[in-house]
């Protein structure tokens, strides 16, 4: 094959008719020492080759050329060394004739390529690759052991996969299959095989090194000692010899003479749609026909001045004076470049010593010059191949056209728009028109993967024909997006050497999958469905290209359509059962190809390598993780994600954000992964051992969390009408108060998946004991919780585990509490209780050690310690609870406050095992957290129904500090919560979290609405800035002064220096809103809030508390507001009663019909608190114990410390209701039994 191999942009069927093929003929020019130009004598200009058969394809080689006619017969001329073209003629050279080799007789070919000593041909419809040649010294023929003598035609073994393209270097070969996989064989001295080593390969092996692992490839190119590949996403990969920068990998590789594995070309300014490789230079064509070249320029083959550029390792755009050529296709020789432009002109630059550029001049050309074609008729180029020092081109004649003007310079982006262009042509027949800037809404996309280079679905390099002068097929003029003038572009399919045009990419589309599912009623159709799914899931490169939207130049997964198709499969259980194991086994095989270990996964850094993971996660075969096979498949996926480098995880998250943003899709993914994580935790609970799979699963769940948040952020950004980026607008205040960083006018956008859908239910069920998790947190994550963004960057390290030597996640990941956003709040509270209990026990041990040291007690002897030293004993009178508490807390030291609280009600006999403390906080909160106490603003309480600090309060700072200490004691002593209504902004300020404009809505709703109206105001018509500001000032009449009431007096305050003389205008309104919000939420209540915050932190200051989010702290402090007694019944236990007895049913029927007030009274009667704990009433274990039967008038009684209800068995439900209601309404005070 020639050194140049241009990758097809779209792998579609060959739609050409025999009539179209018959119009074609061949031109050749350049070196002709071996008659490789298919004619005799010198060929300084493109010369017509006498070939009177319908032509299908062509290829130029080192010392010969090959043609394929419409019947698939192979013709050639040039060197016959090793009798590679004819067994009857001599070894010197042969004229153009049908190849006379016995094995090729009657064998139809579709594409062919030539190297120095070998030929590769693709059979019709891509059924196989046939190779032969004069020598197999380096294994370039792929038939096994290398030897220098002639090798007869034989099949290259590729596993029975259809072949799309072949490419030949000097002594190496590349094959591209319909699965998007690249195989290589031959000489590897310069690393051209991409295997990661320098040893040659005698048989075809898959190129999986570095970035080509699992990468769906749509085009390949082979240079003399280098190789290139083009992915479906438009990424270019190069490897092999890097002499004189020919690989285009940039300065980082300038000192690397060889690159043994594929590396992505950096910094290309767009999406690539074709690649080509030459002797010592390479080319990439981007969308809109932009040509970039890299490598040697000593002969001017890069189209740049030889004086200015000797060689370059960075791809630079081909210049032409002040313009850029718009390129349709390119072919590279040893030292020259041929270019086919958008307007159908053929140009060349580089070495011309053997007339490679189609002229007699021997001097190198470093500015592209137009080639003059030797044709008697007007014609169009439809194929171009160049190798070493000669070229061949396929052209087609046009029979009906008027003469077009001859351009004086190459067609460029700047000159593409011409006002009279439409008048230059007559409409003869309908043809395919390429214009990459406009969509093609009428064309149907062929099955499988068919990316296009633009929004037009026919914009592809393998299906284009460029006009040399005029065309037999014309389209209507279209508007160019870069100008205002009309442009007509006339195109037909261009024949790509080495490409089997009839072979499409074998990817499975959503539409085809849907049809297969619907048609799977017969055994044959069922086998087709099994085979299609198994093929897709077994080959990662194929799966990464499957189920994508058709017609996009960048592939995107049709996740919604795929989910719908999978649902249709599940709705037919019988069909799904027959297909399930085939898909599971294929998924196992595919994951093994993706990566078998950490080192292999290190190359997964492109989204084109990872897109199929989303499709795999949506597969219904993974819906039941309790089954062994689906569980193992999901575990392998999670391990693969953990093995990936940070760049790969980021790319996978981008796939989720861009392709899986639909709510139903993302919810399905989250549910699938979370369910598997729960199953992993349950298995660990059964085995009594935590496995690495748990943390790998959490990593994938965190990645989904991050994607969920990114979707919401980007949607909010797209909806935003105006944004005030205030940066550090409330710059850090005294005591580290929260800062107000951003106000946004866009509506709050809800993430597709709610936060609680990420919570592990296995933790709510305490499959991991809170004591164990607290130990994990202390050992691994005391530095604080890990963020979803950090998860993407976590490296793995090698360690010896219970499962052997393997790569594991860092220790900071190995704690559930480190992954705070995935843990239910109910479980967080239990772990916090464990932490608080450990702190209390530690203090008690410290006291005991000090007492023992003071008394000089010998080890083993008993000592008696005053309980006041071990506990914080709070003695209060019910009628003076606030005064007694205030006095006790003011005397207490910080160490006292951190001891376990024991409450004693003076004059009562109760012993505090938790119930008295709950009663204490219930009574105290009714005194403190109310507007009557003077701490909180009654106006805000009335308007917003929340407690907010009274800026005009006359109470001392110690009173606010006391309120904070009480709140801290509730959290520290593991109480169920306080019956208070603080707005979320209070907890955000306690946790030093950033505030947003929405926080104002919970405190001052009227002011919030006014400020939003101020920010969202827009004039009805366009005005100058001065007029706009004047209109705004006259409309609102505001200055930078606010008015408020303080102690019954009206006060004013300037929001900035000189505020009374500064009007609020359209331009500075954001500053006014910022300063106003800063005053309302921070400055106006700073004297009241700072003592409150310090009081909370006086008691609560631990690593786990610091890791809490403000929303979690709010739930822990305020408890659950909903009282669902059905949850309480579900978790109840019975002693002396049967759960299904009629009496117990009557009891629950009575409770379920209570109103909210009655439910609160009953809950307070039984537990000592009228609030549900965090997580709801299901977290309570109510014990109902039988306490006698009739005859009796005994009231029900309760042990609140143990949530125990002593219930007599009454004769009927009416008596039960009467006595239990009586007990509830008269339950105050504690006694001992």
Automatic annotation (TrEMBL):
Task: Give start and end of each HECT domain.
Answer: 893-1233
The entry's active site is 1201 (glycyl thioester intermediate)
State the SMART domains in the record.
HECTc (SM00119)
Keyword entries, A-Z: Repeat, Transferase, Ubl conjugation pathway
One GO MF annotation is: ubiquitin protein ligase activity
PROSITE patterns (UniProt xref): HECT, RCC1_2, RCC1_3
Q: Where are the transmembrane segments?
A: none
Which residues does the annotated region (Disordered) include?
Answer: 437-458
Annotated protein name in UniProt? HECT domain-containing protein
Q: Which organism is it from?
A: Effrenium voratum
């Amino acid at each position: 094959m020639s050194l140049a191999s241009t990758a097809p942009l779209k792998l579609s069927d060959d739609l050409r008719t025999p009539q179209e093929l018959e119009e074609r003929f061949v031109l050749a020019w350049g070196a002709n020492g071996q008659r490789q130009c298919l004619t005799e004598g010198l060929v300084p200009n493109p010369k017509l080759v006498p070939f009177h058969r319908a032509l299908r394809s062509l290829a130029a080689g080192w010392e010969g050329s090959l043609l394929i006619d419409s019947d698939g017969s192979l013709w050639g001329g040039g060197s016959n060394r090793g009798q590679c073209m004819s067994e009857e003629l001599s070894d010197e050279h042969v004229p153009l004739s049908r190849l006379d080799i016995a094995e090729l007789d009657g064998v139809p070919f579709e594409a062919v390529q030539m190297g120095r000593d070998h030929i590769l041909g693709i059979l019709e419809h891509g059924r196989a690759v046939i190779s032969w040649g004069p020598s197999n010294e380096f294994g370039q023929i792929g038939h096994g052991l290398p030897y220098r003598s002639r090798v007869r035609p034989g099949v290259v073994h590729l596993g029975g996969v259809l072949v799309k393209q072949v490419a030949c270097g000097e002594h190496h070969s590349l094959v591209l299959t319909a699965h998007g996989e690249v195989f290589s064989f031959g000489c590897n001295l310069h690393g051209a095989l991409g295997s990661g080593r320098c040893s040659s390969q005698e048989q075809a092996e898959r190129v999986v090194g570095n970035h080509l692992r699992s990468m769906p490839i749509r085009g390949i190119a082979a240079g003399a000692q280098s190789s290139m590949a083009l992915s479906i996403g438009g990424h270019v990969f190069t490897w092999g010899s890097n002499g004189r920068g020919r690989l285009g990998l940039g300065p980082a590789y300038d000192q690397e003479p060889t690159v043994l594995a594929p590396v992505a070309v950096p910094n290309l300014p767009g999406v690539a749609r074709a690649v080509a490789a030459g002797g010592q230079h390479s080319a990439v064509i981007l969308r809109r026909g932009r040509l970039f070249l890299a490598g040697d320029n000593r002969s001017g083959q890069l189209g740049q001045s030889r004086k200015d550029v000797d060689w370059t390792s960075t791809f630079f755009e081909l210049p032409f004076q002040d313009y850029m050529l718009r390129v349709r296709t390119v072919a590279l020789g040893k030292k020259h470049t041929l270019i086919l432009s958008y307007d159908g002109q053929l140009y060349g630059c580089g070495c011309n010593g053997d007339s490679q550029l189609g002229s007699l001049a021997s001097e190198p050309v470093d500015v592209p010059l137009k080639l003059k074609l030797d044709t008697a008729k007007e014609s169009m180029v439809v194929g171009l191949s160049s190798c070493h020092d000669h070229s061949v081109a396929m052209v087609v004649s046009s029979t009906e056209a008027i003469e077009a003007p001859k351009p004086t310079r190459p067609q460029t982006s700047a000159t593409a728009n011409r006002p009279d262009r439409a008048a230059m042509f007559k409409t003869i027949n309908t043809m395919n028109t390429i214009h990459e800037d406009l969509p093609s809404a009428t064309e149907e996309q062929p099955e499988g993967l068919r990316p296009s280079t633009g929004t037009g679905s026919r914009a592809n390099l393998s299906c284009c024909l460029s006009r040399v002068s005029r065309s037999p097929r014309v389209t209507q003029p279209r508007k160019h997006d870069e100008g205002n003038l009309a442009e007509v572009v006339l195109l037909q399919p261009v024949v790509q050497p080495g490409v089997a045009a009839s072979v499409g990419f074998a990817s499975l589309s959503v539409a085809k999958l849907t049809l297969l599912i619907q048609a799977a009623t017969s055994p044959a159709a069922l086998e087709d469905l099994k085979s299609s799914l198994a093929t897709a899931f077994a080959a990662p490169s194929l799966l990464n290209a499957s189920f994508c939207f058709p017609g996009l130049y960048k592939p995107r997964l049709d996740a919604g359509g795929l989910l719908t198709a999978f649902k249709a499969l599940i709705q037919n259980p019988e069909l799904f059962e027959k297909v399930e194991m085939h898909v599971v086994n294929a998924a196992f095989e595919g994951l093994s190809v993706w990566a078998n270990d950490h080192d292999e996964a290190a190359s997964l850094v492109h989204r084109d390598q990872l897109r199929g993971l989303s499709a795999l996660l949506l597969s219904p075969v993974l819906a039941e993780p309790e089954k062994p096979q689906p569980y193992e498949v999901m575990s392998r996926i999670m391990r693969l994600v953990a093995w990936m480098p940070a760049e790969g995880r980021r790319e996978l998250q981008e796939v989720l954000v861009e392709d899986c943003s639909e709510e139903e899709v993302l919810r399905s993914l989250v549910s699938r992964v979370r369910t598997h994580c729960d199953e992993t935790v349950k298995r660990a609970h059964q085995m009594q051992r935590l496995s690495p799979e748990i943390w790998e699963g959490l990593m994938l769940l965190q990645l989904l969390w991050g994607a969920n948040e990114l979707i919401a952020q980007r949607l909010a950004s797209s909806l935003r009408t105006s944004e005030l980026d205030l940066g550090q607008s409330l710059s850090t205040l005294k005591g580290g108060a929260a800062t107000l960083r951003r106000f946004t006018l866009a509506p709050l956008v809800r993430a597709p998946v709610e936060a609680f859908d990420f919570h592990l239910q296995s933790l709510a069920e305490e499959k991991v004991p809170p004591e164990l998790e607290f130990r994990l947190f202390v050992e691994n994550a005391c530095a604080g919780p890990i963020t979803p963004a950090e998860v993407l960057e976590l490296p793995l390290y090698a360690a010896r585990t219970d499962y052997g030597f393997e790569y594991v996640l860092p220790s900071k990941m190995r704690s559930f509490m480190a992954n705070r956003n995935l843990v239910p709040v109910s479980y967080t509270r239990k772990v916090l209780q464990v932490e608080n209990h450990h702190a209390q026990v530690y203090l008690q041990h410290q006291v005991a050690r000090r007492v023992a040291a003071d008394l000089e007690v010998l080890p083993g002897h008993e000592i008696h310690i005053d309980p006041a030293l071990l506990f914080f004993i709070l003695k209060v009178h019910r009628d003076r609870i606030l005064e007694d508490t205030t006095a006790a807390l003011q005397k207490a030291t910080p160490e006292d406050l951190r001891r376990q609280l024991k409450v004693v009600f003076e004059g009562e006999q109760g012993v505090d095992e938790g119930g008295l403390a709950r009663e204490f906080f219930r009574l105290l909160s009714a005194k403190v957290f109310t507007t009557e106490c003077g701490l909180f603003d009654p106006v805000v309480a009335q308007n917003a129904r929340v407690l907010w600090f009274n800026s005009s309060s006359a109470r001392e700072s110690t009173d606010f500090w006391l309120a904070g200490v009480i709140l801290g004691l509730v959290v520290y002593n593991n109480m169920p919560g306080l019956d208070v209504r603080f707005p979320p902004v209070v907890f955000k300020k306690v946790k030093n979290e950033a505030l947003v404009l929405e926080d104002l809505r919970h405190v001052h709703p009227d002011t919030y609405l006014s400020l939003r109206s101020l920010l969202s105001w827009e004039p009805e018509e366009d005005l100058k800035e001065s007029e706009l500001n004047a209109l705004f000032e006259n409309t609102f009449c505001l200055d930078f002064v606010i008015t408020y009431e303080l102690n019954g007096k009206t006060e004013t305050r300037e929001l900035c220096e000189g505020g009374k003389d500064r009007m609020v205008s359209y331009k500075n309104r954001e500053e006014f809103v910022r300063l106003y919000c800063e005053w309302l939420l921070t400055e106006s209540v700073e004297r009241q809030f700072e003592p409150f915050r310090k009081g909370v932190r006086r008691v609560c200051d631990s690593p786990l508390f610091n890791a809490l989010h403000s929303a979690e702290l709010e739930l822990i402090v305020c408890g659950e507001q909903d009282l669902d007694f059905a949850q309480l019944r579900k978790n109840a236990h019975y002693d002396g009663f049967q759960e299904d007895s009629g009496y117990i049913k009557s009891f629950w029927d009575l409770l379920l019909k209570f109103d909210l007030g009655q439910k609160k009274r009953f809950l307070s009667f039984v537990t000592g608190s009228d609030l549900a704990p965090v997580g709801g009433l299901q977290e309570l274990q109510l014990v109902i114990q039988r306490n006698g039967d009739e005859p009796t008038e005994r009231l029900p009684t309760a042990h609140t410390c143990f949530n125990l209800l002593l219930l007599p068995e009454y004769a009927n439900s009416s008596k039960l209701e009467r006595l239990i209601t009586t007990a509830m309404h008269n339950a105050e005070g504690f006694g001992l039994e």
